[in-house]
User: What shape does this take?
Amino acid sequence: MASPSDVAVALNRFGLGARPDDEAPADPKSWLIAQFESYDANPAVFSGAQDSATLGDGYAEAMLEAKDAEGAAKMAARKAARQEAQALYRDEVDMRARAALETSTPFVERLVHFWSNHFAISAEKPQVTLIAGAFEREAIRPHVLGRFEDMLLAAERHPAMLFYLDQVRSIGPNSRFANRAAKRNAKRQLGINENLAREIMELHTLGARSGYSQADVTEFALALTGFSTGRTKGRGQAGAFTFRPGLHEPGQRTIMGKTYGQRGEKQALAVLGDLAAADATATHIATKLARHFIADEPPAAVVTRLAEAFRRSKGNPSRSTARSSTVQKPGNQRRRSSRRRGNGRSRRCAAWAAANSASRAWRNCSTNSANRYGGRVRRPAMTMLPGTGPRPMPWSAGSRRRSASPRRVGTSIREISRENSLPAHSAT
Assistant: This one.
């Protein structure tokens, strides 16, 4: 029979707390790992959601109609489009909160939240407001138990990320498009935008101060030129990824000492693959995972084991093996959140508060109540939506923290969880 401490850690530290009808797992570690087999990437709660391609096309058509209007009609049309985007966003927030409340796989749902925070976006721009929920459903949920590289590619090429970091405006200075523009207007200077390249290296893969230089960021940004979205009038869907060869900077790129001579989209994909498999990425992600699930200052040995598991798996879930069945007890690690046992409604109240922070959730489940029963209530990152008051960003939109952030370098989360047995902390 598992100890109350191990049960509390499984329910609260790795899950979302206990529901009133939950039974304490007899084997906490097996209970967590078993969730990998029953996880549903597209639960019924999202059945009414639209994909980003459909949403993007609708928004693009609305903007074209607004462009053709005049005066007050143009302003009204644009306002209506923004309000529609905000309404869809709120629907996504509600669906996301319900998914956390109703899930039978809270450990995996917690991982979905973790990776959504890792690939943080901001919903401030109307185009992103519209598809912020689709970003998590399309780039995170399908890959949460798979390879890091697959999720990395899905996230970086998703229209929400491309709009958020202005990649759609990045143009190779010697690209075909730039050359044609210069012939029409010599004074018009087109160039690259480094936001996506820097975000990938600093936050999504290697981590800050991990050995890359500003020159590497610039070269990577040149390699990424061409990553864009479709357009209307038969040129692709506005809410779908499209590689535009005419925007791509020709020539080879040298990044962190390695030369990439591939042409077109293959060049950036090769760089992303190497970044996903880099040792620095493994350490960066391992540190962030350990901080999220164990302690603000996790034991160095745990971080090392996580990083080794990342490197060893090379993104192949079938290679995961259970090597340890012992429970790690790293000791009395400092945490800011409660360590007490889960009980009653606190699990779902905490999940609701963290996912939605809706006023009714805070009324029904106070922070004090959640702390007393082990709920992990932390006020979520807030952002200002256009035309509204502060709203929580359930996919951590806008919370571009510069702290260490782990991500699985081509690694399966299955291996990480199995290789690193359930850490027990001083739950009381």
About this structure: The CA atoms of residues 89 and 226 lie 28 Å apart. The longest helix spans residues 71-102. The chain is about 50% helix and 5% strand.
